[in-house]
Design brief:
Layout: E1 4-9, H1 16-32, E2 35-40, H2 43-49, E3 59-62, E4 65-69, E5 83-87, H3 94-102, E6 108-112, H4 120-124, E7 128-130, E8 136-140, H5 157-166, H6 168-178, E9 187-191, H7 199-207, E10 213-218, H8 223-230, E11 240-243, E12 246-251, H9 256-265, E13 268-272, H10 275-282, E14 287-290, H11 298-310, H12 316-329, H13 335-342, H14 346-360, H15 366-381
Parallel strand pairs: 1-2, 1-5, 2-4, 5-6, 6-8, 9-10, 9-13, 10-12, 13-14
Antiparallel strand pairs: 3-4, 7-8, 11-12
Helix pairs in contact: 1-15, 7-13, 12-13
The structure holds 2'-deoxy-thymidine-beta-L-rhamnose.
C-alpha cells in the first residue's frame, strides 16, 4: 500500500536539516514505495547537496520525490498527506495544520527530533503530545539503541561500501573525478568540520606522521583555519598544499552519495553535525566528531553520551585516549598532544569502528522504523 508523506524542512543553518530530510525522503520512495513530498525553505542548501535540482524551480520531481520550495506563500490547495513529518520541530504553516485537523482520517503527525545518544531519548521516543486542534503529535527520536527510531541507513549500504572498497578501479575513478591523485603509500584522511581554532596543532602533527598523509577537505567553514596555517589568504577547490609528510587537497562540495564515497576512500574521517557523523560511522573506519556547538556546553554532554556507548569494548587505554582526543577536537584540551597519545591505538580503533558499524546495522533503520510506526498507529485506530 502506498502511503503519502509530507516532510517539512526548515534549514536552520548548514546542511544537516536538509541532509537528513532529503535522505529520508529518497529512502521512503526507493525502498518503501511511498509517495513523498519534501518542502524545503532553503533552495540554495538543497541544490548544494543535490546539484541536479534546477536552481529556480519551485516544484520538481527528483529521484521520485516531489520537492517543493517552501515559501511564506503557502498554496492552500495542497491536501495534507497521510503522514506529516516536521523535521526538528519546524513550525508547519497554520493553514496546513487546520487542513490536517479537517481530514476524515487524521494524519499521523510526527516531530522528527535531532540525534542524541543520551539515555532519556528512549523514554521520550514515540510519546504523543495532544494538540489544541484535537490532533496528536508524536515525538520520534533517532538513536543508537533498539528503544529508539534508529539511524538512517539505506538497504544494502554496507555491501555497496564493501564492493567499492574492494575495487581499486572504482575508487581510483572516483578520486580522479574529484581531481585527486594519490601518491604511493599515502594514507587518506577527510576533514569536514566547523571553524576550529586549534586545527593548526593537528595539522602540525600530521606533517610529522610516520606515513605520508593526504588530507581531503571539502570546501566549507574550516577552510579559513587551514588557509591561515598554510599562509594563504584563502583556499579553493582544486588547491593543493604540501608540507613534509602532509599534503592537503581542497575538493568541491559534492552530492550526498559522493560524500559517502569520499568517506569510504579514507582511513580516517572527521565529520560533524548529525548527518555526516552518521555516515562516518557507516564508513566503518576510525572517525572523529565535531559536534554542533550549543549554549552552556550542552553539546559536551551529548558528546560524552555518545562516547559512553561507542567506547564500550575498547581497551581502557584506547577508550581514554579517544575520549581525550574527541574533547580536544571540540576545543577542550591540547589537540596536538591528544593526537600523539591516540595514534598508538589506531589499529584497535580500526577494528572497533567496523564492529560498532555492524552492531548498529543490527537495529532497524530510521525510514523502516517510521513506516512501521505508521502501520502500528493505523492498526490502533482501526
Ligand atoms: O552541515 P551540518 O553542520 O548540519 C547541521 C546543521 O547545522 C543543523 O542546523 C544542526 O542542527 C545539525 O548540523 C546538528 O552537518 P551535517 O549534519 O553533517 O550535515 C552535512 C550534510 O552535508 C550531510 O548530509 C552530508 C552532506 N554533504 C554533502 O552532501 N556533500 C559534501 O561534500 C559534504 C562535505 C557533506
Amino acid at each position: 500500500m502506498s502511503v503519502s508523506w509530507d516532510i517539512f524542512c526548515s534549514v536552520v543553518d548548514n546542511y544537516g536539516d536538509i541532509g537528513v530530510t532529503w535522505r529520508l525522503a529518497r529512502q521512503l520512495v526507493a525502498e518503501h514505495n511511498q509517495e513523498v513530498r519534501l518542502f524545503v525553505d532553503d533552495w540554495v542548501s538543497f541544490t548544494r547537496i543535490h546539484p541536479e535540482a534546477a536552481p529556480e524551480a519551485s516544484t520538481q520531481r527528483l529521484l521520485g520525490v516531489e520537492v517543493h520550495h517552501w515559501t511564506s506563500e503557502w498554496p492552500d490547495i495542497l491536501r495534507p498527506a497521510d503522514v506529516v513529518i516536521e523535521a526538528f520541530g519546524c513550525p508547519l504553516p497554520a493553514v496546513y495544520v487546520e487542513a490536517m485537523a479537517c481530514r476524515t482520517v487524521q494524519p499521523l503527525w510526527i516531530n522528527l527530533e535531532y540525534l542524541s545518544a543520551e539515555a532519556w531519548v528512549e523514554d521520550c521516543h514515540g510519546l504523543a503530545s495532544p494538540q489544541p486542534n484535537g490532533l496528536k503529535k508524536f515525538f520520534f527520536f533517532p538513536g543508537f539503541t533498539a528503544g529508539t527510531g534508529g539511524l538512517l541507513r539505506e538497504h544494502g549500504l554496507l555491501e555497496r561500501r564493501q564492493t567499492f572498497r574492494m575495487s581499486t578501479v572504482e575508487r581510483d575513478a572516483f578520486l580522479v573525478q574529484l581531481g585527486v591523485s594519490v601518491r604511493p603509500g599515502e594514507r587518506l584522511f577527510s576533514l569536514f568540520s566547523y571553524e576550529m581554532p586549534s586545527l593548526h596543532d593537528w595539522l602540525d602533527e600530521l606533517t610529522k606522521s610516520a606515513e605520508p598523509v593526504l588530507l581531503l577537505i571539502p570546501e566549507g567553514r574550516v577552510l579559513g583555519n587551514v588557509a591561515r596555517w598554510a599562509g594563504y589568504d584563502r583556499l579553493m577547490p582544486g588547491d593543493v598544499y604540501h608540507r613534509r609528510q602532509l599534503r592537503i587537497h581542497i575538493i568541491p562540495f559534492r552530492q550526498q552519495d559522493d560524500y559517502d564515497r569520499l568517506l569510504w576512500c579514507c582511513d580516517f574521517n572527521a565529520a560533524r553535525g548529525e548527518e555526516s557523523f552518521i555516515r562516518a560511522q557507516w564508513a566503518g573506519q576510525p572517525f572523529i566528531w565535531h559536534i554542533y556547538p550549543q549554549d552552556k556546553r550542552a553539546h559536551m554532554l551529548k558528546l560524552d553520551a555518545f562516547l559512553d556507548r561507542y567506547l564500550v569494548g575498547l581497551s581502557p587505554a584506547a577508550g581514554q585516549a579517544t575520549r581525550v582526543l574527541w574533547h580536544a577536537w571540540n576545543g577542550e584540551g591540547s589537540l596536538g598532544q591528544a593526537w600523539r597519545e591516540w595514534m598508538p591505538y589506531v589499529g584497535e580503533l580500526t577494528a572497533h569502528a567496523e564492529s560498532w558499524c555492524a552492531r548498529q546495522a543490527e537495529h532497524n533503520d530510521l525510514a523502516s522504523a517510521l513506516v512501521h510506526f505508521h502501520v502500528e498507529r493505523l492498526s490502533y485506530s482501526a
